[in-house]
Amino acid sequence: MPLINIFITYIIWRFKKSQHSLIDSNAKNSLNFQISITIYIIIWLIIVLFMAKNGGSYLGDITNHNSKFAWRFNQYLSMFGLPIYLLIMLQMVCSISAAITAYQGKLYRYPLTIRFFR
């Protein structure tokens, strides 16, 4: 479900921020990170769609079902799908690491984060 990560993080921050300053800080950092990752994925998808539309000849004739087309199509998917996969993996690893750090009572700073909420 798209954007559920942002919605859940926002709800937690909204209702728990007054309980402790560490909860407020960690939730804001998490919300900033979730929004940033979502923006990066959307930007990458726009780039991929633009390149596919304007550079579609790279794939060749899609009515010609031969192995050369299949190879090019797989190459195209891996080349453009890999960054999204890596961003999702980064999101999972950082979320787990942040949960462990927050459990220890420390502030976690996410990488590649645009700070919308300070």
Task: Give an account of the 3D structure.
It is found in: Membrane. It is a multi-pass membrane protein. It holds the Pfam family MamF_MmsF. The chain crosses the membrane at residues 31-52, 82-103. Its main location: membrane. This protein has 118 residues and is mainly alpha-helical. It has one domain. It is built from 3 helices and no strands. It has helices spanning 4-16, 21-54, 67-103. It is elongated, with a radius of gyration of 19 Å. The relative contact order is 0.16.
How far is the N terminus from the C terminus? 27 Å
Which range best describes the helical content: under 10%, 10-25%, 25-40%, 40-55%, 55-70% or over 70%?
A: over 70%
Unreliable segments of 5+ consecutive residues: none
Summarize the biggest pleated sheet.
none
Order of helices and strands: HHH
Structural class: mainly alpha
The gyration radius over C-alpha positions equals: 19 Å
Keywords: Membrane, Transmembrane, Transmembrane helix
Organism: Mojavia pulchra JT2-VF2
Pfam families: MamF_MmsF
Main location: membrane
